[in-house]
Amino acid sequence: MPEVLSRASMLLNLDSRLRGNDDYEVQTIMRQLIIEKEMKLILFDIDGTLMDSGGAGTRSMDLAFAEVFSVPRAFQGISMAGKTDIQIMKEGLIRHGIDSENGNVGLLRDAYIRSLRTEIENPLKRLKPGIRESLDILKEKDEVFLGLLTGNIEQGARIKLGSFGLNPYFPLGAFGNDNEDRNKLLPVAAERFSRLYNNEIEYRDCIVIGDTPRDVECAKIHGAYAVAIATGPYPYEALLKCGADMVLRNIGEMDYSLLS
Asked: Which of 104, 105, 133, 153 pairs as cysteine with 177 (C-beta 3.0–4.6 A)?
């Protein structure tokens, strides 16, 4: 009986709150009431998962290093897949004998963003197959909330997504500038979800979608569901061995029953 009264009170309160509010406020209120359902927070990686930047990220890293430290092709031979931008920048600095703790990362970051704004406008960039269609399906599910879990620093992430008009799909995220250790980013995303929607979410109700074993690890370490997609540098067979809960060749193979 208390539960019935509670829900009745909620509906009465909703009716009073909706009166006189504009469409945006109505939608916000309705989203907050999804607490009555089982919520899922789906967190997407960017590079290799949502999109291929046409090499813009790597070129921008190299251009930034050359601008700040006069070292060309500084990141040649450094694997970037699944790493955070800050981690990659520090590896580059250490490789070339440059102090990584006295403000040099900040200088490199700022130069990287300047270059990326230009380099992202290239003819080779493309969305991965089925991405926009899948995002459109997911955004229509009331119990599903979308976000990012990416090694990109936030400015870089928004530049990349903005080039395809994808930013509106992702109102929240955890980024490489939040922590250079990818394994510590899921709690950041969950906390931002809680602040944005005024409701907590369990890690087990988070789904991380990415294209590398590092994406899988950063989910499983917190008990989240991990989906690995073979649209990046790792082949399908390799991803089958990395402990993911689901492995796909592309996002079009997604089984949406996991959301119910």
From this structure: 153
